[in-house]
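ARCHIVE CARD
CATEGORY: sequence design from structure
SOURCE FIELD: tokenized fold
FIELD CONTENT:
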């Protein structure tokens, strides 16, 4: 328990420092000071500052990822509805985390770096979960598609990059058009009738 408390204090310290400083300017010593522990203790838990950031991203996605795993077992819910619910949960978690990102002023390179971390984590962790949900839909006959892993990856890439609207800033109309195009591709690619997946718009916009 004591070790877990220190571990969490280190992550809390980095998240607090990110509210007012650029990541590049934050030192391991400063993280240790903010956490109220010795610098040497940091290296007991993490080999580097980057490792602390990775752990912070993982912690902020812990809840939505658990939601995703739980949804994978709820076969009574439409697979496309579960896919939308999973991303919605991650989008909410990401928005909360990003409130602490460099409030002292914009830094395009740093924001791109942080978002790359989020995108890598969400795609890596959610791809197998979404692929399983798609396979369930295939077995039930709701989805007719031969490449569940690839479909999961395509959907995640589009949603995390485009709808997150940070790496590739877009207008509201452009985002809506992307959602419409994605839904159309999903309908055609999974042999579902045109308009049958329009209910996704309210969850993805």
């Amino acid at each position: 328990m004591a070790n877990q408390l220190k571990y969490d204090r280190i992550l809390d310290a980095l998240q607090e420092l990110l509210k007012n400083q650029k990541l590049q300017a934050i030192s391991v010593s400063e993280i240790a000071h903010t956490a109220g522990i010795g610098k040497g203790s940091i290296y007991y838990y993490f080999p580097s500052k980057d490792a602390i950031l990775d752990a912070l991203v993982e912690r902020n996605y812990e809840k939505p990822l658990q939601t995703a795993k739980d949804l994978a077992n709820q076969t009574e819910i439409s697979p496309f509805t579960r896919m939308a619910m999973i991303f919605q949960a991650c989008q909410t978690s990401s928005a909360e985390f990003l409130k602490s990102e460099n409030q002292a002023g914009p830094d395009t390179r740093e924001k791109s770096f942080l978002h790359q971390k989020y995108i890598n984590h969400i795609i890596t962790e959610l791809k197998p979960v979404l692929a399983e949900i798609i396979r369930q839909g295939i077995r039930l006959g709701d989805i007719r598609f031969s490449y569940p892993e690839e479909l999961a990856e395509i959907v995640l890439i589009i949603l995390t990059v485009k709808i997150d609207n940070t790496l590739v800033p877009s207008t509201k109309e452009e985002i809506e058009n992307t959602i419409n195009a994605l839904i159309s591709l999903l309908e055609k690619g999974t042999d579902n009738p045109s308009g049958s997946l329009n209910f996704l718009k309210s969850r993805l916009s």
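CARD ANNOTATION: The mean pLDDT is 83. The first helix runs from residue 2 to 17.
SHELF: design records, drawer C
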